[in-house]
C-alpha cells in the first residue's frame, strides 16, 4: 500500500515538475522580462478551512467579499475569524518590447499580498513577438527570482 501511495505521489510530483519546467522553457524562449507598474491592487476576503469553504449560493463558486464584512459572514456560517483568507487582484501596465506601446495585464494571488500596492514596480514577462501578451508566473522554481 505504501509503495502504491509513493508511486502516485511521485507521479504527481513529476507532472508538476515537468509543467513548471515547460512553463519556464516557454517563457525563456518566447518572452522577455520587463518592468511593469501596478495601477490597481484590490484585496478581497474569502472564508475556508481544509474541509469546507463559504460558497455563493447561486453559483457554488467561492464567495469573495469585502474584508470588512468577512468576520460577520464567517461567524454567521459557523466559521472562525482564523478561517478568513485574503487575495489580491492586481492590474498592471507594461511597455511591449515589440511595438513600444503600453498594455494592461492582470493576475490574482493568495499569498504575499502586502507587496502588491498601487504604484509598485514588478517584473512581468512580455512576449517577444506578440504585442499585448504577457505572463506573470508565480512560484516557478525554474525561473529563479520572479517577484510575481
What does this structure look like?
A 5-stranded antiparallel β-sheet has the order 3-2-1-4-5. The longest helix has 29 residues, at 2-30. Helices cover 24% and strands 31% of the residues. The chain has helices spanning 2-30, 70-76; strands at 31-47, 84-95, 102-109, 121-127, 134-135. The chain contains 2 helices and 5 strands; from the N terminus they run H-E-H-E-E-E-E.
- Low-confidence parts, pLDDT < 50 over ≥5 residues? 9-21, 139-148
The major sheet is characterized as: 5 strands, antiparallel
Class per helix and strand makeup: alpha+beta
Question: Which of globular, elongated, flat, extended, rod-shaped describes the shape?
Answer: elongated
Distance between the termini: 39 Å
Helix content: 10-25%
Helix-strand pattern, N to C? HEHEEEE
Our count of helices gives 2
Quaternary status: single chain
Radius of gyration: 19 Å
- Strand order, sheet with most strands: 3-2-1-4-5
What is the residue-mean pLDDT, rounded to a whole number? 82
The gist of it:
The protein is 24% helix and 31% strand. It has two helices and five strands.
List the helices and strands and how they pair.
Layout: H1 2-30, E1 31-47, H2 70-76, E2 84-95, E3 102-109, E4 121-127, E5 134-135
Antiparallel strand pairs: 1-2, 1-4, 2-3, 4-5
Brief descriptors of the model:
single chain; 148 residues; alpha+beta; 5-stranded antiparallel β-sheet; 2 helices; 24% helix; 31% strand; elongated; disordered C terminus
Amino acid at each position: 500500500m505504501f509503495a502504491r501511495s509513493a508511486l502516485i505521489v511521485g507521479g504527481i510530483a513529476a507532472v508538476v515538475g515537468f509543467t513548471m519546467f515547460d512553463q519556464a522553457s516557454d517563457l525563456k524562449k518566447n518572452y522577455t522580462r520587463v518592468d511593469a507598474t501596478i495601477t490597481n491592487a484590490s484585496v478581497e476576503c474569502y472564508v475556508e478551512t481544509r474541509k469546507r469553504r463559504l460558497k455563493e449560493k447561486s453559483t457554488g463558486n467561492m464567495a469573495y467579499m469585502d474584508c470588512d464584512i468577512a468576520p460577520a459572514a464567517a461567524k454567521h456560517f459557523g466559521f472562525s475569524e482564523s478561517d478568513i483568507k485574503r487575495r489580491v487582484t492586481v492590474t498592471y501596465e507594461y511597455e511591449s518590447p515589440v511595438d513600444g506601446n503600453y498594455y494592461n495585464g492582470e493576475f490574482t494571488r493568495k499569498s504575499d499580498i502586502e507587496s502588491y500596492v498601487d504604484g509598485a514596480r514588478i517584473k512581468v514577462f512580455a512576449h517577444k513577438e506578440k504585442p499585448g501578451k504577457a505572463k506573470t508566473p508565480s512560484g516557478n522554481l525554474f525561473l529563479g527570482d520572479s517577484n510575481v
